[in-house]
Design a protein that fits this description.
By secondary structure, this protein is an alpha/beta fold. The chain has helices at 6-23, 28-44, 85-92, 107-116, 154-160, 229-243, 266-269, 277-302, 321-324, 340-343, 370-377, 394-397, 454-468, 481-492, 511-515, and strands at residues 60-66, 95-97, 100-101, 164-170, 188-192, 216-217, 221-222, 249-254, 309-315, 347-350, 359-361, 365-366, 408-413, 416-421, 424-428, 435-438. Helix 1 packs antiparallel against helix 2 (28-44). Residues 1-26 and 28-54 have low confidence and may be disordered.
């Protein structure tokens, strides 16, 4: 990898001054010396890129966010089934974070933590916001469940640094107009406000189930996709690059793949003749997402922007194996629980101009670290950010700082909670005693050490409680019956498996419910 810092630029400038002085003297020796110095300039100068575009030193930033993908379900994560050549190339040319975490194991809260760079529980966004699934006692319901207006987003901060900003795909941070992406720092939007939708156009043969699933261009202009949605999102992001190639830009490309509904094109399905059922559709959906990502990367390279563009690929939570046939191997658990399979996600960052290539970083980082890291990369002073829990990760990744970016990481939903401190992880349950694991030795969480280290359990339990005291009460809550679903699904996928094992939840009829 070629890296060029301020020292290299200063050296080039000083050499140029020396050349001028030598060539103006006129004698043969000086001219020979000037030829030697010019050769040195060519050695230290940055390489000429294909179709170079004059641009500021600020890096472009592209955040690619997949939806409900399994931990193993990419070539760079070890899958021999999925076809992800573009994402694999991104990992080969970047840093793979083997202990990358989200702030919550479900869609909405995870996105709230990502967008604000802080624990979303601190502003009441503790639970997922899905119309029709909520407790009627919630403070807000329906379209009014959204990212509070006093919270600032990544786009808000980057606009201050002179960035053009765009969001494409899934929003899921509020349906009401006041929560719209273009009122939360984004200049452009093409996507849908809710949590899922069809990958094909709604119409007479594919009826729209809820208004938050409509595709929207800008604010209030609703238009259904003319082709498979995943491909369209890649096209939209690529077009934004074409139109903003001379200025720094931030793109939030939030695919709704491979979230349900399970839908793929016949052409993509034909690429996986050995697979059947949901797993076949899942693989085809993942292939389409990789292809759309590839179009974005190719557009960057076409204009000579790839070297100085931060490209992040990660996912919103662990894969829900029972819903979409995702595989979280070698981790236990799924979406909506606090095992590693619910919290740890594929996580890659490429920035060829600054970061090492083809390496793993194996200490815990979080998606909430992206906001301050982006802000610092854009030239901002991240130490002055208020109400941000994330850390700037660049000095840790490059080796300029040792240790872990976070002393501790926390997660919480209702009574259930978890804490990661160093290599230790404590999980607090609603229906059983807390469990303790050493993640360095047991990342599959199969050997509970709580009885062996009771003092550590007690100390971490108290630290979770102290962290909870910094929260606001939830602005909305799910119907309580879904707690049983989350715990039952965790138990079903408690042992890691390389197979997408099927399971269907059957609610338990309790004595209290029978008597009502």
């Amino acid at each position: 990898m070629r890296q060029f810092n301020n020292c290299s630029l200063n050296l080039t400038r000083h050499i140029a001054e020396l050349i001028y002085a030598l060539t103006t003297q006129g004698n043969t020796m000086n001219k020979l010396l000037s030829f030697f110095v010019m050769s040195l300039v060519l050695c230290v100068a940055p390489p000429v890129l294909a179709n170079p575009v004059k641009q500021s030193a600020q890096p472009n930033i592209i955040l690619i966010f997949s939806d409900d993908a399994g931990y193993e379900d990419f070539g760079f994560q070890g899958s021999s089934v999925m076809k992800t050549p573009y994402l694999d190339s991104l990992a080969e040319n970047g840093v793979r974070f083997t202990e990358g975490y989200v702030t919550d194991p479900t869609c909405g809260p995870s996105r709230a933590g990502l967008m604000t760079g802080r624990y979303q529980q601190k502003f009441g966004y503790q639970e997922i916001n899905v119309v029709g699934y909520m407790s009627p006692n919630s403070k807000f319901l329906g379209d009014d469940m959204g990212l509070p207006l006093d919270q600032r987003t990544i786009a808000d901060y980057l606009k201050e640094r002179g960035y053009a900003t765009a969001a494409y795909g899934k929003w899921h941070l509020g349906n009401a107009d006041r929560f719209h992406p273009m009122k939360r720092g984004f200049d452009e939007f093409y996507g849908f406000r809710g949590g899922d939708r069809s990958f094909f156009a709604y119409g007479p043969k594919n009826r729209l189930p809820h208004h938050d699933k409509r595709m929207e261009r800008g604010f209030g202009k609703f238009e259904e996709p003319a082709e498979y949605l995943t491909d369209m999102l890649g096209d939209e992001a690529s077009d934004f690059i074409e139109r903003n190639k001379k200025n720094p830009f931030f793109i939030y490309l939030a695919f709704n793949a491979p979230h349900t509904p399970m839908e793929a094109t016949e052409e993509d399905l034909a690429q996986f003749p050995e697979l059947k059922g949901k797993r076949k559709i899942y693989a085809a959906m993942t292939l389409a997402m990789d292809r759309a990502t590839g179009k974005v990367l190719d557009t960057l390279k076409k204009h000579g922007l790839y070297e100085n563009t931060i490209v992040v690929f990660t996912n919103d939570n662990g894969g829900p194996t029972d819903k979409n046939a995702s595989v979280n191997w070698p981790l236990a658990g799924t979406k909506s629980n606090h095992l590693e399979g619910g919290l740890r996600v594929p996580f890659v960052i490429s920035w060829p101009a600054k970061l090492p290539q083809g390496v793993d970083y194996s200490r815990p980082v979080s998606t909430m670290d992206l906001l301050p890291s982006f802000y610092a990369a854009a030239g901002g002073d991240a130490s002055g950010l208020k109400n941000v829990d994330g850390q700037v990760i660049w000095p840790y990744v490059t080796g300029k700082m040792s240790g872990d970016p976070h002393e501790s990481l926390f997660w919480k939903k209702d009574v259930r909670a978890a804490m990661r401190q160093g290599d230790w992880k404590l999980i607090r349950f609603a229906d059983r005693p807390a469990e303790l694991y050493n993640i360095a030795d047991d990342f599959s969480e199969q050997t509970n050490l709580a009885d062996k280290y009771p003092d550590r359990v007690r100390d971490m339990f108290k630290q979770i409680f102290a962290w909870e005291l910094t929260h606001e009460r939830p602005l909305w809550t799910l119907s309580q019956k879904f707690e049983e679903y989350d715990v039952s699904r965790m138990d079903r996928y408690r042992v890691p498996s390389k197979e997408a094992q099927e399971w269907k939840w059957t609610p338990t009829k309790t004595k209290s419910s029978k008597s009502q």
